[in-house]
Amino acid sequence: NLLATADGTEEFYSAEDLAEELTETGFDARRDSWAVWDGADLIAFGQLRVSDELLDGRWCQVHLDGGVHLDRRGQGIGSRLMELMEVRARELATERHPGAPLRMRAPGRLEGDPVRPLLERRGYQVARYFTDMERPLPGEPLGPADARVQAYRAQWQEAVRQAHNEAFADHWGSAAQTAQAWDHWMTSRSFRPGTSTACLGPDGQVLAYVLTYQWVDRELYVGQVGTRRSARGQGLARACLVECLRAAAQTGDYDKVDLTVDSANPTGAGALYESVGFTAVRTVATYLRDEAAPPAPFPSPSREGQAAP
Description:
The chain is of the alpha+beta class. It contains nine helices and eleven strands.
């Protein structure tokens, strides 16, 4: 949280949110996270995650993250953490996606952040920029309600996952969500079903949706907005978003709504968000480094057929 303020990212955590994240399925906190201590003070950390599904049917995508206390930067701590994370990433890639090349992904944060030269020295390059946007509540009037939109229901969880995987199949860096990973998000303490919305077709198929979360007091976060390809161009995502904002304002629990959009989003999402009152507040970078598939571990020699000593 200190770094979220000092580095300007505003990526705040509560203790409960972090505890939940460290126990999510597929993440082994003892092997996939690191802490650097100076006595009783935590001065740096690192953690990584490997996507359950291959990216574009080819890449094993690994998400690396971490941070070093402002007073301890420039001492090689970040470089050492990167070394440890990259070694572990190759191990996990071999276990989960043997034979697949690696795509290492790390946040480059804001312009001027010291993590950028660190990443660049290690062969990472800027691949994408993402813009954080926000809208005050209640804000400008939202117009009439759209009868096509309904409040989210728990029984739609799998239908929304299927819609999400289709909607994001052509989005940069997005890998398909497994049922298990999706369940973690939809049952997390941060998920806010009361301000999430969906639009269903006549056959009950989810056509568009907006899913919301909360990590910071009085701030609602829009985590996913999507529309099936067959339903695009009908204003469904906008309608779902408007109803989400209306529901959030009616609760009285939030002063603003935040979201993050790919600056090169192929569906023009940035313009959509601007049309309902969101404005850009910061732009962050994402860095990538691609590697060939890690070599398979050398098999232990078989003892079959050998004489006993």
